[in-house]
């Protein structure tokens, strides 16, 4: 399956890591598909951070407003990207400590499945297990 997404990016050289993390959290909570940072070198040999926000094309102005509000950037670059995706579906596996969602993906000649991290982490925390021990409950 293919669709189109918007990539918004900006360079930051005067924000704290906490401020960048907060901006990322806001963007994700407001509907960004993904948000990530990349360490970059900027003018005057300054280290900086490039913030990248992936979103649906209809959300790009909303995300740009949020980036301006929650960062110190003076400008945002926008690119439209064609995205290849796999079809996703979920099933649920029962363990002695509760259910774990299993994500199944397929398409483009690929098929695989993986237990959802959040479900495994919850069991691990509640039962005092390592993440790997929680994963082995599915075997």
Structure explained in plain terms:
This protein is an alpha+beta fold and 139 residues long. The protein has 2 domains: 2-84, Transcriptional regulatory protein pf0864 domain like (Alpha-Beta Plaits, 2-Layer Sandwich); 87-136, no CATH class. 29% of the residues lie in helices and 45% in strands. The chain has 4 helices and 7 strands, in the order βαββαββββαα. The strands form 2 sheets. The chain has a 4-stranded antiparallel sheet, covered by helices on one side. α1 packs antiparallel against α2 (60-70). It is globular. The model has no long low-confidence stretch (mean pLDDT 97).
Helix content: 25-40%
Radius of gyration in whole Å, from Cα? Answer: 19 Å
Query: Helix and strand string, N-terminal first?
Result: EHEEHEEEEHH
Taken together, the total number of domains comes to 2
Q: Terminal Cα separation, in Å? A: 31 Å
Largest sheet: 4 strands, antiparallel
The name of the CATH topology of the largest domain is: Alpha-Beta Plaits
CATH class placement of the largest domain? Alpha Beta
Report the sheet-strand fraction.
over 45%
Please state the structural category: alpha+beta
- Strand elements, count: 7
Number of helices: 4
Order of strands, widest sheet? 2-3-1-4
Q: Specify the CATH homologous superfamily of the largest domain.
A: Transcriptional regulatory protein pf0864 domain like
State the shape: globular
């Amino acid at each position: 399956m293919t669709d189109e997404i918007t990539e918004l990016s900006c360079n930051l050289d005067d924000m704290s890591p906490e401020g960048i993390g907060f901006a990322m959290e806001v963007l994700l909570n407001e509907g960004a598909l993904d948000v990530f940072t990349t360490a970059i070198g900027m003018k005057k040999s300054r280290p900086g951070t490039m913030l990248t926000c992936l979103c649906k094309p209809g959300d790009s102005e909303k995300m740009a407003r949020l980036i301006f509000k929650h960062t110190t950037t003076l400008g945002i670059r926008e690119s439209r990207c064609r995205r290849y995706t796999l079809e996703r579906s979920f099933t649920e596996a029962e363990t002695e400590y509760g259910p774990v969602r299993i994500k199944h993906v397929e398409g483009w000649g690929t098929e695989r499945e993986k237990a959802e991290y959040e479900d495994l982490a919850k069991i691990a925390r509640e039962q005092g297990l390592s993440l790997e021990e929680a994963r082995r409950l599915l075997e």
